[in-house]
Amino acid sequence: MSFTDKAKNKAQDAVGKAKEKVGDVTDNDDLKRDGQADQAEAAAKQAGEKAKDTAKNVKDTFTKD
Predict the structure, then answer these.
(1) What's the per-residue H, E or C state across the chain?
(2) Biased composition, Basic and acidic residues: where in the chain (predicted)?
(3) Out of 10, 23, 44, 48, which residue is the most buried by the measure of CB atoms under 10 Å away?
């Protein structure tokens, strides 16, 4: 996973957490759900990036001379 992708995912997660917290404090269920969705999307992206990294590591392990 590149540093840039990792940073973007962390930022999206942080924004999602902030939205959820503000939505909770202000009783704004739409904002709260939007924040939860942002967090879920960031987690899914991070899982995909980790899967790609794992696949690359496995490939590199078996293709070494």
Answers:
(1) CCHHHHHHHHHHHHHHHHHHHHHHHCCCHHHHHHHHHHHHHHHHHHHHHHHHHHHHHHHHHHCCC
(2) 1-36, 47-65
(3) 23
